[in-house]
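Ticket #4471: structure export looks truncated?
Reporter: QA, pipeline team
Priority: medium

Steps to reproduce: submit the single chain below to the structure queue and open the exported record.
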Amino acid sequence: VTSRFFKSVVAAYPLARTPILRGQSWPASSELVRAVKEFVAEHEAQSPGRTAMLEALALKLTHHIVRCIFGMVAQARSAAHRMDISDAVEHFHRNISRPVPVAELARAAHLSVSHFSRLFEADLGLRPKPYMLKARLSHAKRLLLLGDCNITEAALASGFATWAHFAGAFRRAFGTTPSGYRRLLSEKPILERQRQI
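Actual output as written to the record:
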C-alpha cells in the first residue's frame, strides 16, 4: 500500500483523530484477518479478473487497517459476527445428514470455538449442540411426515449415527417414539398431513 493510497483512505474518516503512525502497533480485528486471508487467496488463485479483484480487496483491506488504527472495530463487529454465525448455520443445514462438530462450524465462522459458541447462543438463543439436535429432530420429523422414507432412513438423513440415539432423542423431544409418531400419522387424513408440512 503506497503512502498516497493510504492517505486517500484516511481522508474518508475526517472526524477521526489521526494518530502518530511511526513505531505504533494496533491489535488486528477478526475482520482484518479475514480480509488479509481473502486477499492472499485471490492472489494465489490466478483467476480471470484477478487484478480488479485485488485492487478492490486492497481498498477493503486498507479500510480495515485504518479502522483498527482509529479504534472503530467494535462498531462493525456485531453485524459481521451475525453474518459469520449465519454462514455457520447455513453450513450445518447443508450438511445435516452427517455429524458436524462445533469446531467445524466455528471454522466456517472464522472464530474460536468458545467465542463462536457464545455468539451463537446470543444470536439464536441456544448453544450450538442443542440447536443442531433440535434442527436434526425437526428435519427427521418432516421426513417421517412426508412418508418418503422409513424411520432408519429418516434418522440417517438427519445426521443421527444410530437408530437408538435418534429414537431416544425423538421421544424426549416429542413425547413419543418415531414409530409411534409414524402410527399417529397413518391415522391422519392426507390433507391434514400436508397442512403440517
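Status: closed, not a bug. The export was complete when the record was re-opened. Leaving a note from the reviewer for reference: The chain is about 70% helix and 0% strand.
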